[in-house]
Specification:
Helix content of chain A: 55-70%
Protein name (chains A, B): MarR family winged helix-turn-helix transcriptional regulator
Strand content of chain A: under 5%
Oligomer: homodimer
InterPro entries (chains A, B): HTH_MarR-typ, WH-like_DNA-bd_sf, WH_DNA-bd_sf
Structural class of chain A: mainly alpha
Largest interface: A-B, 57 and 58 residues
Number of domains of chain A: 1
CATH superfamily of chain A: Winged helix-like DNA-binding domain superfamily/Winged helix DNA-binding domain
CATH topology of chain A: Arc Repressor Mutant, subunit A
Organism (chains A, B): Microlunatus ginsengisoli
Shape of chain A: globular
CATH class of chain A: Mainly Alpha
Pfam families (chains A, B): MarR_2
DNA sequence: CCGCATTGGTCAATCTGATTGACTATCGCG
DNA sequence: CGCGATAGTCAATCAGATTGACCAATGCGG
């Protein structure tokens, strides 16, 4: 597989880049003693940082069915990362909020994100990295500037 | 989920970009009448374009176990996209090559890749897109310039 | 202020793509 | 020749997601 071809498909590059980041993140998390963190957790933690998340919110963030999102949240509760929050106005919504444990994980995740950013900046230059991030953001964002679900539901 | 945050994690952007491309590719393939194409097929078709692929080759390309790679190739044979090629020197390797059907699919895939490239070029500019591709390639490639597996096996 | 479609969420069964584990056959080297 | 390394397969299992059926709270039109 001599890969000297100059313009590999974007999809392949994105797939490789994504896996590399996610694998590296989880490798570093394990080194720090986090052993039961699944790939999707990072997204959820970020989303839950400032306000409780709901199942429907996760559906919109991740682009999975509500059943899958519900299970994911349950798993994070089992792991002690999330806890059910007190119901608000609407008694149908059952919000989840970060537990202390979850907040500690979030802290490490954010720290590692920064490490990985620095790693990438070292590889291609900080300026190029920010350019890349901005272009990528512009390319995938909707007209309102909002990021779509990780996997949009058609 | 008001996502006006300026610097989303790279991993999220890559995940979104990847899914967007892959989903779009398969949507367009279905429009053209291809109904049983799985996400991994594209990578395999490209790899098999110029020379037969082997199970081990797929393992290195995709970063899955050889069992999974073997099944994937079998599925593509069932779909009529690959066929077993005549064994070469080494009787252990059982190469797969593109069938005519597979070559037709590859043709459509390449055409759609070009369409999607054009779409992205329209979004952020052709120059920026090439910059992005080059930077990304540089960031993920090994020192020899070879692209790693989609999902490296640690 | 009541009826009913909509919305948020769960339970259960199933599927798919992958994994781990055990195995066979061929190769190539000392 | 003998033996470790390499290419591949078979079988069982798993994890994360899906489809389908369902319940409870909401809120809007008449």
């Amino acid at each position: 597989m001599s890969d000297a071809d100059g313009r590999p498909p974007l999809a392949r590059l994105f797939a490789i880049a994504y896996r590399q980041l996610v694998d590296d993140l989880h490798r570093r998390l394990r080194q720090r003693g986090w052993h039961d963190v699944r790939p999707a957790y990072g997204f959820v933690l970020l989303a839950a940082r400032d306000a409780p998340v709901t199942v429907t919110g996760l559906v919109e963030l991740l682009g999975m069915t509500k059943q899958a999102a519900s299970k994911l949240a349950d798993a994070m509760v089992s792991g002690g990362y999330l806890q059910r929050g007190g119901a608000g106005e609407d008694a149908r919504v059952r919000p989840f909020e970060l537990s202390d444990h979850g907040r500690r994980l979030l802290h490490d995740v954010e720290q590692i994100y920064a490490e990985l950013d620095a790693l990438w900046a070292a590889r291609i230059g900080a300026d190029r990295l920010e350019q890349l991030r901005a272009d990528l953001r512009a390319a995938v964002a909707g007209p309102d500037g909002a990021l779509p679900a990780v996997r949009p539901l058609w």
